[in-house]
Amino acid sequence: MDNRFIRVIKSMTVLAFGLFLVACSSVPTLPQATLHPSKTTDIDSYRYLIGAGDSVNIFVWRNPEVSGTFTVRPDGMITTSLVEDIPVSGRTPTELAREIEQTLSTYLRDPIVTVTVGGFVGPFSEQIRVIGEATQPQSISYKKNMTLLDVMIQVGGLTEFADGNDAILVRVENGQQKQYELAIDDLLKDGEIEANVDMLPGDIIIVPETWL
Length: 212
Hints:
transmembrane beta strand, five-stranded mixed sheet, alpha+beta, SLBB_dom, wza like fold, signal, Outer membrane lipoprotein wza fold like, lipoprotein, three-stranded antiparallel sheet, sugar transport, 10 strands
């Protein structure tokens, strides 16, 4: 093959690769996901918040026709016989009851409302997420006084490839993301109870893979 032809082919290849890199570099980058802070700032201030997927039972005293059980939609709202869209996600049952009383006061005289919840999914801001080398990575609905050990039991512990002592906990505090080191191997393998720590709603646990 003629050397001149080969040089042309090489030049075209380099040009095509360069255009590919330019095209890749021009692809817009998505902004970082926003981690919405939980309303719980310490283990003693925890109150359950309603979330999408929860079953909400609304009892209106002496008004059974507007009472009922409703499933919270993915947009965080429910639809009742009187009001089509009532925002409920992120509220405690008591807060929701008072808000519904205010809404129903347009149609009823002095309504008295009681709200109970079933399902207990909760909003994403209240769930604990475990990713990486956990046996069953998943999102967990927070329960009051939950600890790292409780979370590890629920996800089935760590895989054989996990580097538990290099695990990281990501927590939003005062609007800022903070990272804390976890010693999960010390807790699970050596029984060092000092490595057990309190969990808070919204915590993210990242378990890396070991290099060895």
